[in-house]
UniProtKB/TrEMBL annotation:
Endpoints of the signal sequence: none
Protein name per the record: NADH-quinone oxidoreductase subunit H
InterPro entries: NADH_UbQ_OxRdtase_su1/FPO (IPR001694), NADH_UbQ_OxRdtase_su1_CS (IPR018086)
HAMAP family reported in the protein's UniProt record: NDH1_NuoH (MF_01350)
Regions crossing the membrane: 6-28, 75-100, 106-129, 150-170, 182-202, 233-257, 269-293, 305-327
Record key words, sorted: Cell membrane, Membrane, NAD, Oxidoreductase, Quinone, Translocase, Transmembrane, Transmembrane helix, Ubiquinone
Membrane-topology annotation of the record: Multi-pass membrane protein
Length: 333
């Protein structure tokens, strides 16, 4: 019993350590890629090619003055970023990186990730309300409306994945794709994949759906009154959420750590590559896509954002669900 507890603690420490390192260099690569998109260099000064810039930023944030606005609710203002980070970190416990590489292989992993995404919004609402700032409050209201609008089509898209796999366990969803001749759910569910991809941008408040932080009209939205380490926690949560959404896209639509059987039969040497390598390659492709969209696509207006969610993505997700029900009943009984 004690040995199992120690092993679990070690696993959690490894996952959190790798995650923090990932977040640090996700920010670095975003600044580099955006720099090249905008015909500039990005970080270059701290370390070779600016590789130590994330650590310099971390040290700066850690020692920066931590201000609490006058009239703010100090308790809620303090715990809001902790709530957001805790919800995102909890999602990592059920994500399988390869066969057997998962902290908690529970039967409701898909449901847990959706639930943690929904609970995280409470931290943003609390941050906006407790800041005693109109900009922060408006940003948190936008975020809550955005999550409500996009979680419904996202959930319907994942319901189609559940119908195809017959399980809420994320590892079982990967194994279900492995049994298919084409090896991935994206081929019969290209519409569901598109819906989930767009909703992933809205869930993480990323461009073109970064309305809760819209600098042009809300200064920094719900982040306006935050500084120092607490401000850094919100960004830790945002980039961790990007990784969670990229992992969910990989697991639910691209076969996770597996490759399509027809591809491995044509190129047998691909079986020699560890599954976690394929998983990370797929995840980092979506991470790059997040950054590329930020550098190329303008922000939507708020009315456009809501219209896309309710009038476009919701009907699309229901259409995808109907198609998948027919495919499952007729072609894959």
């Amino acid at each position: 019993m004690l040995l199992d507890l120690i092993i679990l603690i070690v696993k959690v420490a490894i996952v959190l350590g790798v995650l923090l390192l990932h977040v640090a260099y996700a920010v670095y690569f975003e600044r580099k890629i955006l720099g090249h998109i905008q015909a500039r260099l990005g970080p270059t000064e701290v370390g070779p090619l600016g590789l130590f810039q994330p650590f310099a930023d971390l040290i700066k944030l850690f020692f920066k003055e931590d201000n609490i606005p006058y009239g703010a609710d100090k308790v809620l203002f303090t715990i809001a970023p902790v709530i957001v980070v805790t919800c995102v970190m909890t999602s990592f416990s059920v994500i399988p990186y390869a066969a057997g590489w998962v902290l908690a292989n529970i039967n409701v992993g898909l449901l847990l990730v959706l639930a943690m995404g929904s609970l995280g919004i409470y931290g943003i609402i609390i941050a906006g309300w407790s800041s005693n700032s109109k900009y922060a409050f408006l940003g948190s209201l936008r975020s809550s409306a955005q999550i409500i609008s996009y979680e419904i089509p996202m959930g319907v898209a994942l319901l189609a994945v559940l119908i195809m796999s017959g399980s809420l366990n994320l590892s079982d969803i990967v194994y279900a794709q492995e049994k298919l001749p084409w090896g991935m759910f994206i081929f019969p569910q290209i519409i569901g994949f598109f819906v989930f991809l767009v909703c992933a941008f809205a869930e993480t408040n990323r461009t073109p759906f970064d309305l809760p932080e819209a600098e042009t009209e809300l200064v920094a939205g719900y982040l306006t009154e935050y500084s120092g380490f607490r401000w850094g926690l919100f960004f830790l949560a945002e980039y961790s959420a990007m990784y969670v959404m990229s992992s969910m896209l990989t697991i639910c639509f691209l076969g996770g750590w597996t490759l399509p059987p027809f591809l491995t039969s044509l190129l047998p040497f691909l079986n020699l590559v560890p599954g976690i390598v394929w998983f990370l390659l797929k995840v980092y492709f979506f991470m790059f896509f997040y950054i590329w969209v930020r550098g190329t696509v303008p922000r939507y207006r708020f009315d456009q954002l809501l219209k896309i969610g309710w009038k476009f993505l919701l009907p699309l997700s229901l259409t995808n669900l109907f198609i998948i029900m027919i495919i499952k009943k007729v072609f894959l009984p």
